[in-house]
Design brief:
The structure is a homotrimer of 182-residue chains.
Chain A: H1 13-21, E1 29-34, H2 39-54, E2 58-63, H3 83-91, H4 109-120, H5 126-135, E3 139-142, H6 144-150, H7 167-173, E4 178-181
Parallel strand pairs in A: 1-2, 1-4, 2-3
Helix pairs in contact in A: 1-2, 2-5
Chain lengths: 182, 182, 182
């Protein structure tokens, strides 16, 4: 099982992990509070969520703050009602294709390098992992408060998401779950 | 319930959330290890703590490392016994009013913008949330080791805190709790 | 017990904490996902792990992404098979002696200062804490996927580690544990 991680691909993730692990999972739930929007944090968010779902765990990602940008359509320009939202809009281009790296961004060279590195080693990209997550039934919940702060509407978000919700819903979901703030 | 988050205010947080959620909470505890001192991390620390407390959960925030600065009185100059503590003192002005933002600080423009944005949308500021937390009975525990490292004394901290404690106390508190490192 | 944290040293950590806390620990496990490699994050990773182990908790640290660098021998130059791994290699010098600080690095002055500060106050350094952790029986698991991405082999890592593993193993380990992503 040690070697499985390096081979996570869209085609065989579910089958491979389920075979090995499903039987012994006692915890039934994983809740990830996806606060970060940078590539090197999105990766663990997605890899853990897809792995958990493939293991048969009930898995929910609650996307909040910078993490919410992972769910915004690539072609959406944030257009809040006022100049402040527009300033925020300028600083972050939404969508998984544009994710920076928390360390060593180097004018965009870092993320590109990391993605290539991952491709050569057959690790799925964040966008692919997002699709795998949906296919595996991971619940993806955008944070209502963050959406309101940034002037985002449901139609600005990618398809396949759960209804927006808040901290109370997340805490209810976290009852008896493994809960990670990433 | 989806809309409640955007309206968290001092006046009605407790009542609003309690009505909706209290009945079904099975986990009785939330422990937040508040390691970060930046505005965009302090917000989730405070929003989750106040929401949990309003839901009837026994809630503890353990403030450590950079997170400890949230509890230091605004007018306290850190005055350690030696030049090293003074260097640390120069780099961080304590108190919630001065919190930076982990991304896009822009000479202080980022946090100001974010606070205004929140105000327009009726989301409480970190200072207000700290007060709400105290009112709702959230236990706030400063990390003894960090206080020692920085030469801070009890009288340098805001009122209403629990006794300083360490990692062992925190881990005991985390038994059977939802535990988040933020 | 409040004062114990400030005196964590190699000599007496285990005895001191065990006396105070062991009896009442209900949770038997702590799992730390050590994602960060910076000094101010490595410290809480190590302090919590050693404290938990000293309290009699079954403790596992899963080192992934930047966190993996804590386990790489100081004299190892990362030598991947291709130019991309070499670029990553240039940006991070592995080994605990070189850890930066997530805030205020100041050309290396920040970490040095922090270590001196800790030494004066009798708090163990990360390297010492790593040794304490091994002595106390903390399981230290390097992430297989990260090793593959960076072209690292077992002989590049320090001694006393568990077999490399992946997210599925970590999630199994996290069943009924306090789980922290740091």
């Amino acid at each position: 099982m040690v070697a499985t991680e390096a081979e996570i691909t869209m085609e065989d993730l579910a089958q491979k992990l389920e075979t090995h692990e499903h039987a012994s999972a006692k915890h039934t739930k994983l809740v990830i509070i996806a606060w970060s929007g940078e590539l090197d944090k999105v990766w663990p968010q997605m890899i853990m969520a897809t792995t958990a779902a493939a293991m048969g765990m009930q898995t929910t990602i609650f996307f909040t703050f910078w993490g919410l940008f992972s769910l915004v359509k690539t072609d959406v320009g944030l257009t809040g009602d006022n100049w402040m939202q527009k300033m925020v809009a300028m600083m972050d281009r939404p969508g998984m294709e544009h994710l920076g790296l928390s360390k060593m961004n180097f004018a965009g060279a870092g993320p590109k390098m990391m993605k290539h590195l991952a491709k050569e080693h057959d690790v799925a990209s964040p966008v692919e992992l997002l699709e795998i997550a949906r296919d595996l039934g991971v619940r993806m919940v955008p944070c209502q408060m963050t959406m309101d702060l940034l002037g985002l509407k449901r139609e600005d978000m990618i398809d396949g998401l759960d209804d927006p919700a808040g901290a109370a819903t997340m805490l209810m979901e976290a009852q008896e779950a493994i809960t990670l703030f990433i």
